[in-house]
Amino acid sequence: MAVTIKSAREIELMRESCRLLARVHQEMEYAIKPGMTTRDIDVLGDTLIRKLGCIPNFKNYNGYPASICVSVNDEVVHGIPTEKRVLQEGDIVSLDAGLIYKGYHSDAARTHGVGQISPEAQKLIDVTRQSFFEGIKKARSGNHLHDISNAIDAYIKPYGYGIVRDLVGHGIGTALHEDPQIPNFRQMRRGIRLQAGMTLAVEPMVNMGRSDVVWLKDNWTVVTQDGSLSAHYENTILITDGEPEILTLY
Ligand code: MF3
Ligand code: CO
Question: The whole model's pTM is what?
Answer without folding.
Answer: 0.98
